[in-house]
Amino acid sequence: MIELKNIHKSYTRKNTTVEALKGINLKVNKGDIFGVIGYSGAGKSTLIRLVNYLEIPTKGEVIVNGQSLANFNKKELRETKKQIGMIFQHFNLLESKKIFDNVAIPLVLQKKGKQEIKKRVTELLDFVGLSDKSNSYPSELSGGQKQRVGIARALASNPSILLCDEATSALDPETTQSILQLLKKINAEYNITIMIITHEMAVIQEICNKVAVMEKGKIIEVGTVLEVFGKP
Ligand code: ADP
Ligand code: ADP
What we know:
This protein is an alpha/beta fold. The chain is about 35% helix and about 30% strand. It has helices at about 45-50, 75-80, 100-110, 115-125, 145-155, 175-190, 200-205, 225-230; strands at about 1-15, 15-30, 35, 60-65, 65-70, 85-90, 160-165, 195-200, 210-215, 220-225. Helix 3 packs across helix 4 and helix 4 (about 115-125) packs across helix 5. Bound molecules: adenosine-5'-diphosphate (2 copies). One adenosine-5'-diphosphate binds near residues 53, 70, 74, 77 and 78. This is ATP-binding cassette domain-containing protein. One of its GO terms (cellular component) is plasma membrane. GO terms for molecular function: ATP binding; ATP hydrolysis activity. Keywords: Amino-acid transport, ATP-binding, Cell membrane, Membrane, Nucleotide-binding, Translocase, Transport. Belongs to the ABC transporter superfamily.
């Protein structure tokens, strides 16, 4: 489903080069809830952004659904990116737009019809439990509610993969739990493969079936959560 082959990524600024990733090999299978854990600076963000082609590897190959992204033309890349939803630590909602319109963004960009958008957004808001917030603005919502909006928006174009970038790091433990349960439900009901990066062990223990541990641009361990941490 997602395969990273010998990925290297360097950032060059002025005269200094930072090697953020140093030879990453990773395979995420369909249906996995795959966690990547590591300290700040380990390279987690860079790794997940490569899967979405928000970053381009300096070396190596990113393969999604059996196809190497580097071989795609713009149109094919755009189609593949529709298959990948993403949620963020700080939710990344548009403050000037109502909740309905925030969720509708991907559908508007895809030039879907008004009726179709209304139907789909209504379904999505219902699914994340925010039907009554359709006409509210992000500033009127709690952190947990904002992340639910982020999730609804990420699911709008029916992705087969959901990427989560520290998606619960700005939330309290109780809200974190409810978001993790929602991710579990998305994985189980829609068979969406989930990749999560986090520095929080509790997130890995709670919902991941596989985990990779990152340190200084390398994966130092990978396996089931039981194999890596010795606890279910
Ligand atoms: P993590 O998500 O684990 O905190 P990152 O992928 O954000 O790690 O960062 C890995 C390394 O790459 C760090 O040393 C960071 O400073 C560097 N880095 C990340 N993004 C950039 C960038 N856009 N420009 C320069 N250096 C970057
Ligand atoms: P969109 O309009 O769908 O956002 P873009 O063509 O602007 O698509 O590409 C989005 C990202 O993918 C950009 O970071 C771009 O540099 C990168 N990208 C696009 N085409 C390629 C390619 N053939 N190889 C590597 N990276 C690419």
